[in-house]
């Protein structure tokens, strides 16, 4: 046990939480415009702790990796949250079983410890989150200045960083879900931060509701994991909840002692090194179900197709929030989760393929949409979706290279996307809140620092050598390429084997793809090839839309919107400093991760990440390949990126007449002219038609030409409907209207639900409430009958009494007689 | 005269008293008369109680005398009734006094506006007008705004 790791692990989430509480309590009355101070100090403290943690984990890793091969993890248990003894009796193990004896097999207790873990994956995420959060908080101190909710904003930011750091450091699926929801709540609060704006309130609601779909799948996945593995912990625990690794390793070596004492049994965690080494994972349908449900959960949080619709709307929040939550940190939670669950995904090749398809498709889709947007922040939002798609694509490759590549892209993307968003925020700040690129332009002289840093971010995002994006995008492409290579190799190998020993097919093949059937291999080869090319197209689109945004914002003649006419200025130093720091990181973080200068394929980041238990052992290690720099892939991706940049420069610098021509062409504009048959009459003015027609008239065959004209007119009338519809769904309009996803969801999900809700409302209002009201009507009616007796004269009351008594007496007499 | 015929006479007197009181209570509107009628009903009950006590209790020393307090059982109850009636009389007189002071008259119908809302008022019909002109009451010089006439008030005789 390393005490320094334990202290850091606790301090990293505790400091932001403390600052959030302080600001929430004292902000309104006491701190006021100094509300940012506690939060920034706490975040900086967390950042320092994260860096310490990173170095400690790295040192421990290099120390332990020599001895054992199952990675380094340290679990710090704070307290027990829930304990239900003997909650579940596990069915017989499905996969290759763990060595029996030392491990718990009987009824398992449902224990949830508040346990934090330190391993390479967590340390890396913590470092990235706290570093970006500190810079964004600094930026926000300038950006949000003078806002009425200044203290509220920083309280939310503190709360968000607490939730996010907990999300990546907890060691239990249930707690993961808790903080998964907590970051969702923070996102909701911050998207709807300016809740007086109806658009912002609606966007917050949309983000929350779309995420519910994913979260529902995520909960189902957690239930399935519990039913399959009998625990939700990542790590091994003793039956009494202790996680002391020395005791556990001791007991694992002494099965006879553990057999004698039930309290000394070990409960193997879902993602614990012992289970990973033994590869004790279910396969087949259950594994696929778990993984696909997890994937849907990740799709919700990471805004992947089909749940990507909330992220662009979330841009209604303050720009620092977009930078921190909706670009750098929260949206990467899905990627982190899938990388964390690598052993589960390795057990299901189908699910991996689906991950890759979702990622590749989303990358392409978002890239296409981003091409035609005019809202600077929305372009960046779609770019985020697209880059997250790249990460999913890499994770879907399912190899060590893919997962480390995806995480590497996550890491570098956090820097340059935060940079781009903060740059957009700086522009917005200067333009008095305008974000539509048609209203401003040519800001490079007005805002030199913002311009320079934004340019660095754009180059990094496009993947230009030697900036960060180049290395990570290259890693993603290389991982897909490697996967194709591995699949093809396996196919060839099987063919060769089949030819050599036609009868000896039962012989167990070795390697990561051993369990795959031939048809699976063939399908996955096709799919991965398609994904590889679509990824290249996406990379081209990335460069194109990024530089389109850059050119429209910073190049050309200077245009400033009215609302900023007099106070358009470069942002203050407090906002520029984070931009510069992030720009330096975006430029250098990729090249600094190269392990050896003579081999650019080596990646210190990837090596570090491979120390995490999820990646260090088990089936995934079979996909390990020697680090190699693929010059042809790097070359292709660079050419693609440069082509995109060049095209954007050509189209959007200067006149932009070609861009307008392209827009008109893709918009199919002019097609509506064809739906009006009068165009046939104008045809005669075209010389190669008019000449023959005149010739026909001269030889008295004029009616023939007229008939042909009428025929054409009739055809165009018939075609009018599809032509007009075609114009409605022209490529340009499709892209600009985001492929009508919002409208489709509106028509097929939102409105049916609304109608259903209206029916239920009607039922509740008139049937349920009607019954309740009817019950109330009975005494009312009875009362109105009796009320006429209460007419105020004492004599009538007395008479009523006398009559009543007489009736009673008469009844008594009749009863006695009968 | 045996015990049963003795009881019969008692009950007859008691019943007569009760019915006279009841009819008086039902037909008269003067609050004092109504109160007197109520008292009369009470006394009718008292007389019957004494008769029953005499009949059931038997003479002292008889078998059932211990269980029912002997012949004095009914009379004891009646003494309680008289005591309670005295208290009730005090309260009733105080109430009647207050009510007559407020309304200026003893008519119980004056207070019929205590009925349920929405019920039509009971209106006296074919009652000869009270002659007010030959009465001389001390009057005050009218001053201030004339209060709005109350509908219920107008239905009845004018107040002091």
List keywords for this structure.
heterodimer, A: 818 residues, mainly alpha, two-stranded antiparallel sheet, 32 helices, 6 strands, 69% helix, B: 160 residues, 56% helix
Task: Round the mean pLDDT of chain B to the nearest integer and report it.
Answer: 82
What's the total helix number of chain A? 32
What distance lies between the first and last C-alpha atoms of chain B, to the nearest angstrom?
Answer: 58 Å
Radius of gyration of chain A: 34 Å
As a percent range, the share of strand residues of chain B is under 5%
Oligomer class:
heterodimer
Task: Please explain how this structure is put together.
The complex is a heterodimer of chains A (818) and B (160). Helix content of chain A is 69%, strand content 5%. Chain A is mostly helical and 818 residues long. In chain A, the strands form three sheets. A two-stranded antiparallel ribbon of chain A has the order 1-2. In chain A, helix 4 packs antiparallel against helix 5, helix 16 runs parallel beside helix 19 and helix 19 (468-500) crosses helix 24 (631-652). Chain A is globular, with a radius of gyration of 34 Å. Chain B is mainly alpha-helical and 160 residues long. Helix content of chain B is 56%, strand content 0%. Chain B contains four helices and no strands. Chain B has helices at 3-27, 31-57, 72-103, 151-155. In chain B, helix 2 (31-57) runs antiparallel to helix 3. The chains are: A mainly alpha (818), B mainly alpha (160).
Topology:
The complex is a heterodimer of chains A (818) and B (160).
Chain A: H1 3-31, H2 36-67, E1 74-89, E2 107-118, H3 120-143, H4 150-169, H5 173-191, H6 198-229, E3 237-238, H7 245-252, H8 255-260, E4 266-267, H9 273-278, H10 285-301, H11 310-313, H12 319-328, H13 333-340, H14 342-346, H15 349-370, H16 376-397, H17 400-430, H18 448-462, H19 468-500, H20 518-554, H21 573-588, E5 594-596, E6 599-603, H22 604-609, H23 613-616, H24 631-652, H25 657-666, H26 671-674, H27 679-682, H28 687-698, H29 702-728, H30 731-736, H31 741-787, H32 794-817
Helix pairs in contact in A: 1-2, 1-4, 2-3, 2-4, 3-4, 3-12, 3-17, 3-21, 4-5, 5-6, 6-10, 10-13, 10-15, 12-16, 12-17, 15-16, 15-20, 16-17, 16-19, 16-20, 17-18, 17-19, 17-21, 18-20, 18-21, 19-20, 19-24, 20-24, 28-29
Chain B: H1 3-27, H2 31-57, H3 72-103, H4 151-155
């Amino acid at each position: 046990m390393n005490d320094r790791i334990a202290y850091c692990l606790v301090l990293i989430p505790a400091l932001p939480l403390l600052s959030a509480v302080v600001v929430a309590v004292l902000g309104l009355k006491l701190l006021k415009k100094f509300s940012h101070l506690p939060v920034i100090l706490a975040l900086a403290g967390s950042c320092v702790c994260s860096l310490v943690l990173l170095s400690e984990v790295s040192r421990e890793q290099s120390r332990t990796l020599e001895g054992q091969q199952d990675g380094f993890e340290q679990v710090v248990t704070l307290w027990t949250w829930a304990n239900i003894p003997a909650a579940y009796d596990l069915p017989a193990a499905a996969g290759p079983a763990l060595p029996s004896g030392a491990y718990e097999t009987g009824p398992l207790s449902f224990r949830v410890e508040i346990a934090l873990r330190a391993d390479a994956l967590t340390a890396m995420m913590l470092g990235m989150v706290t570093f970006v959060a500190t810079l964004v908080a600094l930026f926000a101190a300038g950006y949000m200045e003078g806002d009425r909710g200044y203290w509220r904003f920083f309280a939310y930011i503190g709360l968000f960083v607490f939730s996010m750091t907990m999300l990546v450091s907890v060691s239990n699926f249930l707690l993961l879900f808790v903080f998964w929801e907590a970051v969702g709540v923070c996102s909701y609060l911050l998207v709807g931060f300016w809740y007086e704006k109806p658009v912002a309130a609606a966007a917050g609601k949309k983000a929350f509701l779309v995420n519910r779909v994913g979260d529902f799948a995520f909960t189902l996945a957690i239930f399935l994991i519990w039913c399959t593995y009998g625990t939700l912990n990542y790590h091994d625990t003793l039956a009494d909840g202790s996680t002391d690794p020395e005791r556990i390793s001791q007991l694992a070596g002494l099965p006879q002692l553990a057999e004698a004492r039930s309290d000394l049994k070990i409960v193997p965690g879902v993602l614990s090194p012992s289970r990973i080494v033994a590869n004790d994972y279910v396969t087949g349908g259950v594994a696929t179900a778990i993984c696909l449900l997890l994937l849907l959960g990740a799709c919700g949080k990471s805004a992947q197709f089909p749940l990507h619709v909330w992220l662009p709307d979330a841009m209604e929040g303050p720009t620092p929030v977009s930078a921190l939550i909706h670009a750098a940190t929260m949206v990467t939670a899905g990627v982190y989760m899938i990388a964390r669950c690598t052993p589960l995904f390795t057990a299901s090749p189908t699910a991996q393929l689906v991950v890759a398809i979702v990622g590749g498709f989303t990358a392409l889709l978002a890239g296409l949409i981003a091409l035609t947007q005019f809202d600077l922040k929305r372009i960046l939002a779609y770019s985020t979706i697209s880059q997250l798609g790249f990460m999913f694509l890499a994770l879907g490759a399912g190899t060590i290279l893919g997962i480390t590549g995806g995480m590497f892209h996550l890491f570098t993307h956090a820097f340059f996307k935060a940079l781009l968003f903060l740059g957009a925020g700086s522009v917005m700040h200067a333009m008095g809140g305008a974000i539509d690129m048609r209203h401003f332009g040519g800001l490079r002289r007005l805002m030199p620092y913002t311009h320079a840093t934004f340019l660095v971010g754009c180059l990094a995002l496009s993947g230009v050598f030697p900036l960060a994006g180049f290395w990570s995008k290259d890693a993603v492409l290389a991982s897909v390429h490697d996967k194709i290579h591995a699949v093809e190799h396996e196919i060839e190998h099987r063919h060769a084997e089949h030819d050599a020993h036609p009868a000896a097919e039962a012989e167990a093949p070795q390697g990561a793809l051993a369990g795959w059937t031939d048809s699976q291999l063939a399908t996955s080869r096709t799919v991965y090839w398609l994904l590889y090319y679509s990824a290249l197209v996406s990379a081209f689109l990335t460069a194109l839309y990024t530089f389109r945004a850059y050119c429209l914002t910073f190049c050309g003649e200077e245009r400033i919107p009215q609302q900023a006419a007099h106070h358009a200025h470069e942002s203050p130093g407090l906002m520029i400093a984070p931009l510069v720091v992030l720009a330096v990181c975006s430029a250098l973080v990729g090249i600094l991760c190269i392990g050896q200068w003579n081999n650019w394929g080596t990646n210190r980041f990837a090596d570090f990440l491979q120390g995490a238990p999820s990646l260090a052992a088990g089936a995934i290690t079979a996909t390990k390949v020697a680090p190699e720099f693929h010059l042809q892939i790097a070359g292709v991706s660079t050419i693609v990126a440069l082509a995109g940049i060049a095209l954007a420069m050509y189209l959007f610098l200067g006149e932009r007449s070609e861009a307008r021509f392209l827009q008109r062409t893709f918009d199919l504009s002019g097609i509506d002219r064809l739906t009006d048959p009068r165009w046939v009459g104008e045809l005669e003015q075209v010389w190669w038609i008019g000449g023959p027609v005149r010739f026909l008239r001269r030889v008295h065959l004029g009616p023939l030409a007229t008939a042909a004209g009428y025929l054409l007119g009739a055809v165009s009338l018939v075609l009018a409907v599809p032509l007009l519809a075609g114009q409605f769904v022209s490529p340009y309009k499709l892209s600009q209207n985001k492929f009508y996803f919002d409208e489709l969801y509106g028509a097929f999900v939102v409105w049916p639900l609304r109608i259903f809700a209206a029916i239920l409302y009607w039922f509740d209002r008139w049937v349920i409430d009607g019954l309740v009201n009817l019950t109330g009507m009975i005494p009312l009616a009875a009362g109105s009958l009796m009320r006429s007796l209460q007419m105020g004269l004492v004599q009538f009351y007395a008479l009523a009494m006398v009559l009543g008594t007489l009736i009673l007496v008469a009844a008594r007499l009749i009863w006695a007689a009968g | 005269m045996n015990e049963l015929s003795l009881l019969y006479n008692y009950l007859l007197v008691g019943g007569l008293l009760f019915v006279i009181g009841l009819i008086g209570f039902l037909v008269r509107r003067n609050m004092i008369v109504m109160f007197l009628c109520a008292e009369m009903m009470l006394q009718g009950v008292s007389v019957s109680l004494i008769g029953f006590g005499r009949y059931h209790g038997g003479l002292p020393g008889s078998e059932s005398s211990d269980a029912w307090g002997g012949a004095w059982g009914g009379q004891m109850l009646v003494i309680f009734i008289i005591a309670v009636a005295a208290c009730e009389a005090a309260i009733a007189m105080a109430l009647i006094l207050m009510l007559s002071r407020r309304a200026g008259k003893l008519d119980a119908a004056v207070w019929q506006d205590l009925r349920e809302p929405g019920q039509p008022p009971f209106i006296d019909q074919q009652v000869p007008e009270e002659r007010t002109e030959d009465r001389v009451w001390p009057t005050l010089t009218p001053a201030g705004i004339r209060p709005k006439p109350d509908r219920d008030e107008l239905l009845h005789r004018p107040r002091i």
